[in-house]
Amino acid sequence: MPTKTNDYKRAYIWQLPIRIFHWVNAWAITGLVITGFIIGDPPGIISNKEASGQFWFGYIREIHFICAYLLIAVMLLRVYFAFKGNKYANWRVFFPFKKEGFKRMWHVIKYDIFLQNEETQGSPTGAVGHNSVAAASYLFMFLMALIMIATGFAMYAPNATWFLPKMFDWVVTLVGGDFNVRIIHHFVSWTFILFAIVHIYLVFFHDWLEGLGETSAMVSGYKFVRTERVKKEQEENKLSEIELTNQNSTQIKDIN
Amino acid sequence: MKSKDKVNETYYTSIERQGYNRRDFLKFVAYIGAYMGVQSSAIGQITKALETTPRLPVIWEHFQECTCCSESFIRSDHPIVADIILDKISLDYTLTLMAASGHQAEAAKKATMDKYKGEYILCVEGSVPIGADGNYCCIGGRSAVDILKESAAGAKAIIAWGSCATTGCVQAAKPNPTGAVPINKIITDKPIINVPGCPPIGEVMAGIIVHVVAFGKLPELDSAGRPKAFYSKRVHDSCYRRPYFDAGLFAENFDDENAKKGYCLYKVGCKGPSTYNACGNMKWNGGVSYPIQSGHGCLGCSAKDFWDAGSFYSRDASVNAGSIEGNADTLGKIALGGVAAGIGTHAILSNISKRKELKNRITQATENEKHLDDL
């Protein structure tokens, strides 16, 4: 007889557009950071070729701009799905600044800084989607991305051939000159690097401790939840069946 | 001193009287029109305006400045700029160049201000100190703030010459002991044309004056109040070394092989990519050269707060964050080290703190594994 273990059910948490957003965003940011550092401090290359035969720095900048547009495109997609997606993708998730939200944030922090351990393993009460601290950090990064877009387009505006980047030339006046725009752009880019490291570490940390598919969820969309939680939800669903008939939220699938 | 009977004289009349013939005049119009960036069809309009417009009364105030703007202006490479535009436009009052001095000069200014109330153009060179009740800069016993407010009250428009008057320049750089401010911090109820640069290009200055005269209105301004005709492009965008930038060929020192080859000065702190000016096209001293052409990066003299915005010879500005000072990359690396150390510590502590939880899970899972039938 095996030791008594918990029963889990598979739940579809991250819809396809959310996953597309995540990975395009992740690779765009990676590209932006790498090319950004090269643009900020390009390597000095000694070359015998004429300048007319070379364009590598131009291509680096082009990659930077392409990645920037990709980032904006998937950001718009994400904002759309903050209204159209399931409840785990909803915009309300990212504003946990209510009494209940702060309580949950404190719970996550306590757990992460070893003030408290879960009594039973497998996170019976923890967040299924973004935990509150993570959600708050994504809101922060969303704002940082807005700063990067505004300052980036402000620097891009003089060379821009269409209206969108040109809409940001007020940023230059606001922060007092192009040089300040550049410094802000450079500083804020570091928040993305630091965020990415902490984000990846905490994903691994929670996956390793809880074993609920935290990491693979962003590939497959599925996470595992304790069976009793699903039952509870199914009862709730029965109560409000009519409301939920057309909803695509929480498609619970049995693992068996 | 300018006598009042010459007031209604047109520009063309005074140009003729100076001994220039019509051909010279038309050449000047074509030349300044090209600098202003107007279409060739507008040259007739400028000609007509200069022929028929009476001389524009101008008061040119000097506050905290080095007079480099005036110097640049009188060195515009076309003689008519200096002879006619400067002589005829600004003779009413300009400390450096007028013949009158002392009470005579002040009286002349007062007379112009009274007679042409609401019509004259006020040119301001230099920043205005507002520290210590404005006593750091006094002319004729009156503070610069006072004088500026008085002259601005009756002005039709104000032209702020140079970085001092537009952004404060070196006087307003940290720690700014005199509390120097640009004039748009003091005068807010008049149209102001900002003409930054330390100094601005002489032809730019002449072009702006001719624009005001010829079209009877201010040139089109950008969000920072600068004429779009001269300040809409970055020095970088009109730089003849731009192909080296795109090719990724950079000088790393002023004496290296790449510098000799004339490669891009981006890595030695050229501020061309963040500076809006016409240096790349119009150049200086009659189109002879400009800083980048002489092998020195752009200092960004027409950019806001250029004295405080980092070193002239590096691309990154140091920022003081508490006790640590460094540029974005230094501070970023310190933060990165902190995060890495934190994560390492956290990973180790997790194994200790969560050992019970982990042990349970591992035991259960191992147990399950033993009871699996399949391979």
TrEMBL record, chain A:
GO terms for biological process: respiratory electron transport chain. Residues 225-252 form a coiled coil. GO terms for molecular function: electron transfer activity; heme binding; iron ion binding. GO terms for cellular component: plasma membrane. It is found in: Cell membrane. The chain crosses the membrane at residues 20-39, 59-83, 138-157, 183-204. Signal peptide: none annotated. It holds the Pfam family Ni_hydr_CYTB. It comes from the Bacteria. Keywords: Cell membrane, Coiled coil, Electron transport, Heme, Iron, Membrane, Metal-binding, Transmembrane, Transmembrane helix, Transport. Residues 14-221 form the Cytochrome b561 bacterial/Ni-hydrogenase domain. It is a multi-pass membrane protein. The keyword Cytoplasm does not apply. Belongs to the HupC/HyaC/HydC family. NCBIfam families: CytB-hydogenase. This is Ni/Fe-hydrogenase 1 B-type cytochrome subunit. It comes from Flavobacterium phragmitis.
UniProtKB/TrEMBL annotation, chain B:
One of its GO terms (biological process) is anaerobic respiration. The keyword ATP-binding does not apply. The keyword Membrane applies. Its cofactor is [4Fe-4S] cluster. Residues 231-312 form the Cytochrome-c3 hydrogenase C-terminal domain. It is found in: Cell membrane. Heterodimer of a large and a small subunit. This is Hydrogenase small subunit. It comes from Flavobacterium phragmitis.
